[in-house]
Design a protein that fits this description.
alpha+beta; 2 domains; two-stranded antiparallel ribbon
Length: 146
């Protein structure tokens, strides 16, 4: 079960204090866009979530099948890319978000085991959330009465 994530304005312009259970860390924007760079920016946090889930999924599956996986490393990059699509009125160009993942496995895995893990990690919970139809509901929080 996921714990609530509480985020509050932090000590500088865009800095945010992030609290998850007993864990506390910061998010911010880079200096070049006016932040203080005291923590990862929101896209970096999203990529960290995806890569952590990817690695944990691979580790759990390998452990369950007693495969000799000793380490997983995932590198994520984010960008906006131009794509072309065909519609009834012709080709259109649009910008889409793109996350690219590169994964490496350490240990004595066979090529078939590595391929299976590569297929499996695209079904980790965060990957499924990001590639599904998702609803985000935002509402004003009721203030506590003094």
């Amino acid at each position: 079960m996921a714990r609530n994530v509480v985020v509050s304005s932090g000590p500088s312009k865009y800095a945010q204090a992030v609290s998850v259970g007993s864990h506390l860390f910061h998010a911010d924007e880079p200096v070049e866009v006016g932040g203080g760079d005291i923590g990862p920016n929101p896209h970096e946090l999203l990529m960290a979530s995806l890569t952590a889930c990817t690695n944990i999924t691979a580790q759990m599956y390998a452990e369950r099948h007693q495969w000799p996986l000793t380490a997983v490393q995932s590198v994520a990059s984010y960008g906006r890319v131009t794509t072309e699509s065909l519609s009834g009125s012709g080709a259109t160009t649009e910008m889409v978000d793109r996350i690219e993942l590169e994964i490496s496995f350490s240990g004595g895995l066979s090529q078939e085991q590595e391929q299976r893990l590569l297929e499996l990690v695209s079904r980790c919970p965060i990957h499924r959330t990001l590639t599904s139809s998702i609803q985000v509901s935002t509402r004003l929080r009721v203030k506590a009465q003094p």
